[in-house]
## 1
Amino acid sequence: MDTSNAENADPAGASQGATSVSGAGPGGRPPAFDGLAAAVLDDRGTVVGWTGTAQELTGFCADEVHGRPVRELVADLPLDPCRATQWPATGRVRLGHRCGTTIEVTFRTTRVNGSADFLVLAAPTPHVADHQHGAALLRALSAQSGITIALHDTDLTTVQTNAVPDTPDPRPVQPGARLGDVLCAEDAQSIEAVLRQVLETGIPVLGRNQHVSWRHHPVPRHALSLSAFRLEDARGRPAGVAALYMDDTDQLRARRHLDLSREVAERVGESRDIVRTAQDLADVLVPAFGDLAAVDLARAVFDGDEPGERLGGGDLHLRNAALAPATAAWPPGIQRGNLVPPLSDHPLLRRFQRGETVVYGRDDYIALIGGPQPAEQLLPHDTHAVMVAPLHARGLTLGAIVVWRTVPSDPFTADETDLMRQIASRGALAIDNARRYTREHRAAMALQQRLLPPATTDTPAAETAGVYLPTGRGAGTRGDWYDAIPLPSLRLALVAGDVIGHGIPASATMGRLRAAIQTLADLEPEPDELLTRIADLVQRLAAEAPPGDHDVMGATCLYAVYDPVTRRCAMASAGHPPPVLVRPDGSAEAVELLPGPPLAVCGMPYETTTIDLEPGSVLALYTDGLVHRGAHDVGDGLGRLTDALATSCRPDRALDGTGRALLADLVDEAPRDDATLLLARTRAVPGEDTAHWQIPADPAAVSDARAWATRQLTAWGLDALVITTELIVSELVTNAIRYGRPPAELRLIRHHVLVCEVTDSSSAQPRLRRARTTDEGGRGLFLVAQLAERWGCRHGQNRKTIWSEQPIACAH
């Protein structure tokens, strides 16, 4: 272009009214520009070169500005354009646009090599500021240790990144690399799928959790938070993707550790069973902490005892209590219940025995267990690290937690060692609590079993079988008991009771009550009178108890007496569930009786109920633990028990097996209360083995009574007992006529003993005394006591019975 013409031209004016010229925007406004304009000026400031970006910035084409002074395009040149050597290296000016407006631009100048010309680069000032701020932001983010930035083009090739792999050779990732060159193939594909979706949709991804491993160093894995945004050019077209990765490994590990600690606190220690507690501890560690876990306990701990101290190698007296997961392919030497083999005297073992949590490498662990050959039996496959933590509580080392990590798991860290120390401390307390409970439970069970009667008895009145099942919860037994007490005249007392409380105190109370009932039963009171006396005893026991235990002292009790001669059973209840009667035909029902108050309550009467029992009937006495099942109603439980007894109590089935089977079917796996069941299959004395004679109120009847007794013994073939029996009958009948009131009766019963009974209507209590030499009487009961094996007196309603027993040498 001619310079003179250019000097006379007014580029700004020439643009007026020519808005259709290329470069002008709608309404005469300059179009959006997001690039870098370039022009070449000679040493006089004349335009000698003009680029397309300069045309895009100003709206003037090269033909319009070529050869013209630059001052015609610039509104405020900072100096004389004719002295180009004085041009600043950078600055800001207002540049005229063809549409008549001005644009503030920031420029930079540089001399063209080998020439006097200058290259001028310019861009709109706001864009330059944005780029400067963006570059500053990018530099600041790139400098953060936990933040990785990667810019990818539309092919997801890395354009720029500050990524440095955590590998033995940590060289920065170079531009041009793809994710598959840096990350494991599976991780790279997963992230590329996310970036491609962002590139296609323009929808950003924020805080996506992603786990990755470096391609040449797959262990450890890193937890990342991925955010991705699409990059666009000035026209809004996709230009690439910016990915921001924040390393959440430490935060995620801290959250996992916190979750694991909370789970240990919630799960470990709920059970009072030692093995169950150990299994809970192993279960929470896998897979949250390791790939495999075992809990080994000192052998003494399983029995509730305190383990001994041990220092150095050899047999540590440990046995495996728990493995997790139980379905893993454990080596042959590691199985539930196995003894831990002797170990070498390794320095790390000594540290463990001093209470430290130690981490073994594979080689150290092989040395500890005795070399490569034992390792085949004791080392899980692909193990690369083992952590062993002592279970130390109250000055005792109860055992150890062993956790294995296999390839490709991460190695153990110092933070994880500290965490395991805390877990082991909590687990040790839980196991020690279970151990102490086991010791107390065993003591209570031993006391309870010693205080209970034999499981089975065989008497002329009935055969009995008792079964006792302790509670699965709480601190041991709860004082349930049963008893079968032989009484004079072939009778049998049946007892079932339930003491309030648990543990050794309940067992001790139960023992005192059982002894008291046996003593009172030997005095042969009616059932209601016996319970009244026992209630008085419970009140005294409550008064002797510590102040805080007054309200928990008490019991329920059912007392029944069966007479095989009359085939009648008298019973009374002190707040106890009614017995169940199973008749010989297989029908069963609960006995209707009026229960009195529990034994802790005095002042309320008890009532005796009498029922007839056929020979072969089964009377079932039990405690409420047998009919309480979960949230079910007691009535439902009694119905289930009645049905089960009707089905199970068959004449051809032994009572002890029947009782065990019933408890197994009716009681929960972990019962809330003790369960006791006493089964009694009744018998009857045949009529030909008893004889009755009414005693007239006449002293002459004494000789008749002796004669009658002699004839009866002769008929039974008991001639050897005739003389002693005549003397006993003579004394007892004489006392009945002299001191008693009619009517009176003499009864003989033949079984394994000969029972002689004299009953009258007087309630006076006979008393054994030593008569003086000058006394005419008072020697009758003394003589009876010398001739009989035992004798006694029992009181009934408006009557008393004096009895004696003589052994029969041979069965008839």
Note: Residues 1-28, 771-778 have pLDDT under 50 and may be disordered.
## 2
Amino acid sequence: MIKKYSFFVCASIMLLLLFFASCRSARYLEEGQALVTDVDITGVSPDIKENATAYISNEIKPNSRLNLTIYNLFNTRKGRYKEENRRNVGEPPHVLDSSLVELSAQQINRYLQTKGYFNAFVTPQIEVRKKKARIDFHVELGQPFLFGDIRYRADDPVIEEMYAREVRPKSPAKTGKQFDSADLLDEREKLYEKLKERGYYDYLRQYMRVGIDTNVVAKQADLHVEIQDPTDSTQHIIYHIDSVFVKVILPYGQTSTRNPRSTVDTSLRITYNDETGRFRLKPLSRYMYLRSGMRYDFKKENQSYDRLYEMNGFRNVKINHQKIGNGRLNTFYELTPRPVMANQVEGEFTFSSGMSGFNIGNTFSHRNVFGGAEQLEVKMRYGVLFDPRLEGNLADKIFNNDFQVGVNLIIPRLMTPFENSSTGSYGLPRTTFSSTLQFFQQDQTYSNRYFTNSLNYIWYTSPRSQHSLTPVSVEYRVGKLDDAFQRQLEDEGYLLYVRSNNREYFGLSAQYNYTYNAAKLLTRENFSYFRVGLESSGNVLGVLSDVLKLQTSSEGERLLFGVPYLQFAKTEIDYRWYRHLGGNKQFVLRFSGGVAVPYGNNSRLLIFEKSFFGGGMNGIRAWQARTLGPGNYNRADLPERLRLNLRNLDQLGELKLEANAEYRFRMLNNFLGAKLNGATFLDAGNIWLLRDNEITTNGTFKANEFLSQIALGTGFGIRLDMDYFIIRLDAGLKLKDPQFAKREQWVIKEFFNSREFKQNYYETHRPDRYNFIQYNFSVGLPF
């Protein structure tokens, strides 16, 4: 404990030293120079201020304190900055430059005009004191202009009719609305897309011109929209595709061990040349939507780009067109393959409740197994958790370890025994064959061998709707309790727990998942996300049990190949509400829940693999995974000698309810080469059983009690955004813990008296220890 507090004290002192060191950076400057320490825009609303800030030159924005301190450490000598041999580390001081201040004021003024403030004035005010400069861009907005009369004409009557019917009615630029040039840009882009989708290959955005007249009516901007014809022809031309050529290019500097392929496919009407000799034309041509004889379509061209990239077999895709006269085009697809072989290593570290461990995984990929960009993945993962309370050397302190190996074959199309209508217009359809083998061992408690085989289909019915169907999932599992631990459980009367875990079973299930708006999860927009999953197991075998004349065990369970089969139904939902608050600020609300019901041939207690758990880095973050619930369950009710062995095995449920609220914001735009974001959050929820069992009678869901059994946690997180991935560290603080009774659940009141509280908890829950704060380190956002 002393070491932990010493660490925080030292870290705090270091941060204070960095703060004061950056504050004293001005003393290194020459006379007449000033370090910019503060920049503000006043006289505008917060939304306008945040957007206008982007138009201030970065050279006169305040430095990052950390980056400036690092720069000063390596580039100062004798109280001054070095004249030569400066090292390119950190960030050099942003010195006041009046020309950049004036330029920034002009840029802010231009931005305000695009928002309808044509009479706005931006006055920069500079205050310099002790070589430190504060800049205030004071804005006088004036009254905004509104959209007035909107008139339009086109040289081509066909285009004018299309514009009037499909573009203008949906335009955000409406009479009486505040002027915003973004609305006009949106309208121009919509017209451009519509015309390019109808074969107008030559059409350019510049053909649409907008005149703005502010002299007719006060504070009103009348628009005159004109869509011009090309200067070198009488009208815009609609183009059709004549011939299609496909070429797979051998990457520069590489040689192929196979002979190139060249052919003319008369059925597809494609001339094909593969320099690598590795790809087949037919599976690739499915996603080349521009074909011979078709009218040129900009939308189909973009769909071709998207689907060919999504196949994950090509690092570069180019689609070029050549005019051959008479409104005809030749289309050329050029595909540059990615390396055939790839390998990726991942890892994470976990620490909580006195135990620590790590997970490490390796994924090997072959990106073109059968010549159609089919992907073969071989995944291996190993995880271990250490408990320092166990006696012996490091190997003896292993609490549990988990090894998994899996093989996936991903085929970029739907392989069904019947014709299907999935063309990939909205997303790449996939067929996945997968097999997974898992070995789990918990010290002196429990071992598990789990083998699954499944067939999965993924397809899209709209740009926002994704469907996933697993018609067949075959599972075989052997779970075995440690002999001594089994006898101990039997002596304590936990026979149901023994029967539910010390068993062998066979499963034949089907699953379906529907997801809405998954593609928008990393965008800064206002939207809702929804996912629902359904799973059912054993129903077909239950119906056919009499026909197949399945044997029955001594406990009344039907046996398949001498092994009981599972019967259960499970459903899960996940709803999220995202709101963009301007700039890099975002608010997210999330609700998730699920229920799993064992029945028929299954035991009364749901198996471990299909059960719900509470806590974890993507759930209620103030609790470690599998240490929350069910209901009011308190592990003090267990005999002391069982608590350690049953950890992570006894806190499971058949019903889950969870809600999260998170506010995300930008902290630093440049932190060690990445963006540093922050988040504050509030998590609530729990898990429950559907019926009492031998371990607990306080974990059953009851409509009149479940609200009092909700756990509450809050916290703060930092996220290092590297563009390609996000590194996340969240610290969750327990507010309300349902394992305690009534008012004692509000554990936050004990936070500042934690030593005594933790000691009392340890005496009644030995060897468990209580932690108010749970740290979660991971990659990616929680939701």
Note: The CA atoms of residues 658 and 685 lie 4 Å apart.
